[in-house]
Specification:
Blueprint (H helix, E strand, L loop, with lengths): L6 E3 L4 H13 L5 E3 L3 H8 L7 E4 L9 E4 L2 E5 L4 H7 L3 H8 L4 H4 L4 H6 L8 H6 L3 E5 L4 E5 H4 E2 L1 E2 L6 E8 L7 E6 L10 E8 L2 E7 L6 E2 L1 H7 L6 H9 L14 H21 L6
Parallel strand pairs: 1-3, 2-3
Antiparallel strand pairs: 4-5, 5-10, 6-7, 6-10, 8-9, 11-12, 12-13, 13-14
Helix pairs in contact: 3-4, 9-10, 10-11
This protein binds flavin-adenine dinucleotide.
């Protein structure tokens, strides 16, 4: 049961959503944008959040888009993980979405919710970090198109009242050779002990990680080490491990040593697979 009353709004346009947000904010209702609702409902039931109003953004046409437009693949923030997986327009993203939660919840979770939510894993962001994607973000003041690396740093850095509208992925990345690997503590369906998304572009390996530290990340320093052809593969991986952006946590899900052991072996096989063209995904 949700232990508080709240108002429900379902705007049909971005402008309408932004205006409703501002009006509710000014009247002290502490509104939240509502997409799949899986996180909002779970947290409201546990009294981890309270709100006087939710603004359901799923019916806004721009948030439902999923199509190639010019040089970009455009995916609306309200598109569900199931829809992304089934359309398979960007196979690496499709595979990452198919391994978040289970089938029932994938039908509800949206791309925007996964990126903007508070649960730290945000696995759907990994392929986007590798592709120089752009995000379209709207507020009552304006709409802006920003490179993902400027607005996603550990988490989405949105200002209050800003709505993630769309993700634009340059078309040339969607067919790059890629590897997606998710390792969990026990069951296949679980939060990641370690998820790695990697792709090969211009003979360079790019890689992004979730579960390894307390935020998802892509590290240019790690990639420089992995692509240093003056070193052996073993040395490249060792150098990359020395450039992790934060300490690997020790917790009940796995010790730091175990996570690092898995990472070392995965990186070795991923780089080898991408460079030899012998890719197997798991
Ligand atoms: C059972 C379960 C298992 C899960 N397993 C995984 C997993 O394995 N890997 C993983 O990465 N994640 C996992 N998650 C996390 C899940 O992806 C997030 O909770 C995600 O937020 C849910 O998306 P949603 O569309 O339901 O978001 P909602 O619950 O609707 O919203 C979540 C947050 O995002 C904000 N938001 C939503 N859309 C927008 C938008 N367009 N613009 C601005 N803000 C927005 C909302 O205001 C809210 O703060 C799991 C969640 C559950 C409940």
């Amino acid at each position: 049961m949700i232990p508080f009353d709240f108002e429900y709004y379902r705007p049909q346009s971005i402008t309408n959503a932004a205006d409703i947000f501002q009006t509710l904010e000014e009247s002290g209702k502490n509104p939240v944008f509502y997409a799949g609702g899986t996180e909002i409902i779970s947290m409201a039931r546990m009294s981890s959040i309270t709100t006087g109003a939710v603004i359901d953004v799923k019916e806004i046409p721009e948030l439902k888009a999923m199509e190639f437009n010019g040089d970009d693949l455009v995916i609306g923030a309200g598109v569900t993980l199931t829809q992304i997986h089934e359309a398979n327009l960007f196979p690496l993203l499709a595979q990452a979405c198919a391994r978040v939660a289970d089938h029932t919840i994938q039908n509800k979770i949206t791309l925007g919710g996964n990126l903007c939510g508070t649960i730290i894993y945000r696995e759907a962001v990994l392929p986007l970090l590798l592709t120089n994607a752009y995000l379209v973000i709207a507020s009552v003041k304006n709409a802006r198109r920003v490179p993902i690396n400027e607005v996603f740093s550990k988490r989405m850095q949105l200002n209050r009242g800003e709505l993630l509208v769309q993700v634009h992925i340059p078309r040339n990345y969607v067919s790059c050779p890629y590897v997606h690997v998710k390792r969990t503590k026990e069951d296949k369906i679980h939060y990641p002990l370690l998820t790695v998304c990697a792709l090969l572009t211009d003979n360079q390996v790019r890689a992004a990680f979730s579960g390894l530290v307390n935020f998802p990340f892509r590290s240019v320093e790690m990639e420089e080490a992995l692509n240093d052809i003056n070193l052996t593969l073993e040395q490249r991986v060792e150098q990359a491990l020395n450039k992790l952006p934060a300490a690997v946590p020790d917790n009940l899900e796995g010790s730091a040593g175990y996570r690092t052991f898995i990472l070392k072996h995965l990186l070795t096989s991923i780089v080898n697979e991408l460079e030899t063209g012998n890719v197997t995904n798991s």
